[in-house]
Amino acid sequence: MGFDFNHFVELIPEINTAFLQTIYMITISLAVAIVIGLPVGIILYVTDKGLFWENKTVQTILGFFVNLIRSIPFIILLVALIPLTDLIVNTTIGPAAASVSLSVAAIPFFARIVETSLREIDKGVIEAAIAAGATPWMIIKDVLLLEARSGIISGITLTLISLIGFSAMAGTVGGGGIGDLAIRYGYYRYDNTIMIATVIILIVLVQVIQFAGDFIAKVIDKR
To answer: 57, 63, 95, 119: least CB-packed within 10 angstroms?
Structure first.
């Protein structure tokens, strides 16, 4: 059985609910990733050898935890974080619960992207700022973030797209969203209409986000 348009129309309310749940999950997770991941990425960079806050201990410990979380497959991370999820949101199912695991996965992912973007900055610019008497905070705010803004925007785009994939995976364990809908109808009920619809929705969503992210990154890139 292929795509049944009439059946699709009947399921629009459920598809709409699932879509909004997905947007809810990735929005919360992205916000957490930016609020925590951005400072972590900056610290990873400025504590490296030769930088103004050089600290091998902080670099090593923070880098270890970032790499540790990134090395765990998301489906395993979902299960491992069940106690933490229950503690934070008092439930282990639904979009709010899935947002906890998504946030934990997104933080180190985005942090490494931020660190990589900062490493592309010419160190001569940083040295010039130090010579001019700029404080570390001023260097971070007026030099590092300003010079790396295009790369950071691209990193946000990449993180958001990755979160869409993770959110679909979260649906397989009751996280809600498009993934949950695809599993309940498309897989368990062999409903090709839902499978095709959810795939198209995810493709369109990713394309829109990628286009918007690339456009914004080019607009703010003054190099």
So the answer is: 57
pLDDT at residue number 93: 85
Give the C-alpha separation, 47 to 43, whole Å. Answer: 6
Distant-in-sequence contacts of 92-96, Cβ < 8 A, 24+ apart = 92/174, 93/173, 93/174, 93/175, 93/176, 94/174, 94/175, 94/176, 95/21, 95/22, 95/24, 95/25, 95/175, 95/176, 95/177
**Which among 159, 165, 143, 152 is positioned nearest to 114, based on CA atoms?**
152
Contacts of 65 (CB under 8 A, 6+ apart): 108
Handedness of CA 206, 207, 211, 212 (dihedral sign): negative
The percent of residues above 70 in pLDDT, for the chain, comes to 97
**What pLDDT digit, counting tens, does each position of 66-93 carry?**
999 999 999 899 889 989 999 999 988 8
For residue 116, give its domain range. Answer: 5-220
CATH code of the domain containing 27 = 1.10.3720.10
Token pair 């806050």: residue? 53
